[in-house]
Structures are given as C-alpha cells and as structure tokens.
Design goal:
- The complex is a heterodimer of chains A (about 80) and B (about 190).
- With about 80 residues, chain A is an alpha+beta fold.
- Chain A is built from three helices and four strands; from the N terminus they run βαββαβα.
- In chain A, the strands form two sheets. A two-stranded antiparallel ribbon of chain A has the order 1-4. In chain A, strands 2-3 form a two-stranded antiparallel ribbon.
- Chain A is globular and about 45 Å long.
- Chain B has about 190 residues and is of the alpha+beta class.
- Chain B has a single domain, classed as Muramoyl-pentapeptide Carboxypeptidase, domain 2.
- Chain B is built from six helices and five strands, in the order H-H-H-H-E-E-E-H-H-E-E.
- In chain B, strand 4 and strand 5 form a beta hairpin.
- Classes of the chains: A alpha+beta (about 80), B alpha+beta (about 190).
- The structure holds iron/sulfur cluster (2 copies).
Chain lengths: ~80, ~190
C-alpha cells in the first residue's frame, strides 16, 4: 500500500502534480495539493520529477532498477551529502 | 607510437588465466560493478541507433521498431506452453522477462476486476517497473514513449499473441521515471 505525503509548507499550489498524475491522485484544496486517491497510485514518480518545490513523499513504492546512474557519481554524492 | 606505449598496452592485456575448451563459465566475469562501463556503452549505442533511425525514417521509425519487437516476441514465446487465460499468460511472460523488465498486472482502486471493460473495449492495465528501455533512454537523456519503447511494446504484444493465440494491442498510458503504465487491449 502506497502512502503519499505533501509538505504543506513547501507546496506552492502550482498544480503541476494534479495535471501530471495519470491516476488523478491529487486535488488542489486551498492552494495546497492533497493526495485524495493515494490508493490509485502506481508509483511512476512523475509527480516527484515535476514538483518544483520537492514537496512530495511516497512510501511503499517499488524502486525500479537504475543501472544507468554512475556508481562513481553516487559514491561521490554519498560522501558529500 | 613508442615502444614504451606499446609495451604498456600489451601489459594491460597480459593474463595468467587458463581456459580449457570444456570450461563452462560458472560466474559472471568481471563482477557486476565492473560491468558498468560495458552497460553504459551499450545504452549509449542503442540510444544512438534509435536517434539515427528517427532522423532517417521519421515517424516510420516507430513502425520498424514495433515490427521488430513483435517478431522477436513471437519467436521467443514460441517455445513456451500455450495458455488461453491472459492473466496467466502475463504471469508467464513476466517470468520470462524477469531481470530486464518486471511487469505487474494492476488496477485503479475504483475497479473490482483486473480485466476492465470500458467504452466497448476490454483491457488490462500493466505497470512496467524495471525496464532496460527506460534505463537506456534516461542514460541518454532521450524522451520516453518513442521508437525504443515501441520495440518493447511489440515484444510484449508478440509474446502475448503467441502464448494465448489471441490478437492483442498495447497502448502507453503514462511514462514515468520509476514506472510506466500501459493498457493491454484484448481483441
Ligand atoms: S507516483 Fe505517479 S501515479 Fe503516483 S501520485 Fe505520482 S504521478 Fe500519480
Ligand atoms: S507540484 Fe509540488 S508544489 Fe506544485 S501543487 Fe504539486 S506538490 Fe505543490
């Protein structure tokens, strides 16, 4: 079961996630995105890519393989972050 | 080129490994983390082929890649048992493709059944999780949903047709960085 949280303080109400989600998971209420149909989320994470405020958090999404990312870059980032 | 350079080059390929003709490789050599360069090189190459094909053939590129994928799907699935039930066939296909592509039969929360009938058509939603096509496109910064996706498309359609003996069609509903949603339309 996927759980979605929207950081109300970060969300700027742009509505991009509402438009982009193919499953109509989000609705804008009082200029904040609300995940009203989280049970219909299939974990594509398009909304994460499109959200300019990085306000979204998904729990329980299957992480698909990302072998296209450089191991060395990841190691470097892990050292920095 | 100096002798030193040539010697250096030769030294880098020097090995004491003994190969016998009857040897069966029991492990993946070199270890997977050393495969990164090979894998990324392959991704680059595939991306370049697809980009050139698009430049040369325009919209016709989709037809070519779809046909190639479909033919391959038929060929591969020819050796698998025939199953009439589409859900079972998809399970079988997901087993065949495991490691390269992982597929989940999926339904939105408001639907009771996986086989959905809507506006006169019958379909099943498929979520593609792991996908080497998506990984290749993202490695190259190319958009999803183009000719390379259509190869996979054709492959799944071909395999399903071969396993079930029924005609099928696939439609991309949505592409994302972590998963893609497709509709398998049953005819
Ligand atoms: S992950 Fe995909 S399906 Fe889920 S809420 Fe985001 S856009 Fe919608
Ligand atoms: S895309 Fe991000 S900032 Fe925009 S409405 Fe959705 S959660 Fe808020």
């Amino acid at each position: 079961m996927i759980e979605i949280r929207v950081d109300e303080n970060s969300c700027n109400g742009c509505g991009l996630c509402v438009k982009d989600c193919p499953m109509q998971v989000y609705e804008l209420r009082d200029s904040v995105s609300v995940p009203v149909r989280a049970a219909s989320c299939m974990g594509c994470l398009s909304c994460h890519e499109i959200c300019p405020a990085q306000a979204l958090e998904h729990r329980g999404v299957y992480p698909s393989r990302r072998h296209y990312i450089d191991i060395r870059v990841c190691e470097m980032l892990n050292r920095v972050i | 080129m100096t002798d030193g350079t040539i010697r250096e080059m030769k030294d880098s390929f020097a090995s004491t490994t003994v190969y016998r003709s009857e040897d069966v490789p029991l492990q993946c050599i070199p270890p997977p983390n050393e495969l990164e360069d090979t894998l990324h090189g392959l991704m680059k190459l595939n991306g370049l082929i697809i980009r050139s094909l698009e430049e040369i053939a325009g919209r016709g590129a989709n037809a070519v890649t779809y046909r190639a994928g479909r033919k391959y799907g038929h060929e591969v699935a020819k050796y698998f048992r025939k199953i009439e039930d589409v859900e079972e066939a998809l399970k079988e296909l997901s087993y065949i493709l495991h490691g390269q592509y992982t597929i989940e039969i999926w339904k939105p929360a408001d639907k009771d059944r996986y086989i959905i009938e809507e506006n006169g058509s019958t379909f099943i939603y498929l979520v593609f999780h792991d996908c080497i096509v998506r990984q290749t496109l993202r490695r190259n910064g190319q958009p999803q949903g183009g000719p390379l996706c259509l190869t996979l498309f054709g492959y799944v359609v071909g395999a399903i047709e071969e396993i079930t003996g029924k005609k099928a069609k696939l439609e991309i509903v949505h592409t994302g960085p972590n998963a893609c949603l497709k509709k398998l339309i049953l005819q």
